[in-house]
Amino acid sequence: MSLSRPAVPMPLPGSRWLILMTVVAVYICMIDRIAISIAIIPMAADNGWSPTVQGAVMSAFFLGYVTLQIPAGYLSDRYGGKWVLGLGVLFWSVFTILTPAAAALGLTMLLGCRFLMGVAEAVTWPSIYSLYSRWIHPDRRASAVGLMNSGIAGGSVIALICTPWLISVWSWQGAFYLYGVLGVAWFLVWALRGRSSPDTVASWHEAPEDATAQGAEAVSPTRYPKLTIAGMLRSRAVWAIAVAHIAINWSLYLVLSWFPTFVNREMGADLQLAGLLALAPTTMSLIMAPLAGRLFDGLIARGMNRLAVRRVLQSLAFAGIAIAMLLLTVGDSLIFSVTIITVSNALTALSVGGFATNHLDIAPNQSGLLMGVTNTLAALASSASVFVSGWILDITGSWDAVFQTAAGVSVFGAVIYVRLASCDREFD
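The chain above was modelled as a monomer; its predicted structure follows.
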């Protein structure tokens, strides 16, 4: 006799507001992060910076970004995500406002400012995942994560469109002032209304989701160990998430960093057109991420196996990347190349129903820490992808080799995830 699947509880009071505020926080995060890629042009002109110096200014952020991911996750899980996220937004906004002053004081001060801004932004994803584990029912989390991830693309699009306009009508300094003030305003609202946990603890907090979904007797949380480094190294499910996160970021930052150069040098698009075309894949991610989250939650609501859905959606995401990368090696049309990458980004968004929400399955009470670990590795992979792709271009002179490498990374990620992924709760 099969057990019927219980109805998904209604969203907790205040959860929709929390999702809205975290989505806005991600928008602000990406706007502040991406703005420097535009502002660096007039900044370099004003200060006479070489390309090497410009690269150092932009990369200083990422050096800071990898330092606080894991501590932020631990603090969020241990003490609640409200103030970890709130103070992160406040501090990175302050450093955004201070960027013009730091630049005026000299390169060392600017590098330090960008580094500290990266440290502050490092708290974003670990703290949000910790908040979602407490506020959002397991069968609604993919939708929430999809909306949150749409802010990555949305904030990037806003920064790429608005920053040049702000610089033209005001100044590059003014762009940083405005973006920083937006973050401070967000913090004031969040400080007044934000909460780490709901007032009423729902029943699904008391038992692992698989037991709840099957109508089984609640299992004491004490049977699950705390998430530790040793535990992560022994966990097949953790390795599945980490490798998938690394593989996705490899192709994502390859496209973000090198696609404009590719369509300019290989396809003959001028720089202005290349910049506009680069918005197409990003815009597609903005649209598809929330849709992918709703797709996953909808399939689960219809009674489909959670692990099977995660494997299928994540495999489709990797297949989309791999096929797109290989097609780029045989296409010689600008429209073809842009279309392929745009479609690839649409399929990549399916990761929302794959690894991107999987942290909350296996470590619901320590999802912030787990996200901190995998996002640190993924951030390092992002930097490696940009560097290695440039190195491959230098030694081979071939874009084909760059795209073939990315395809291979995606295939590897798919194989590891399908073989090792799990939706069973492993950690308290």
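Residues 206-221 have pLDDT under 50 and may be disordered.
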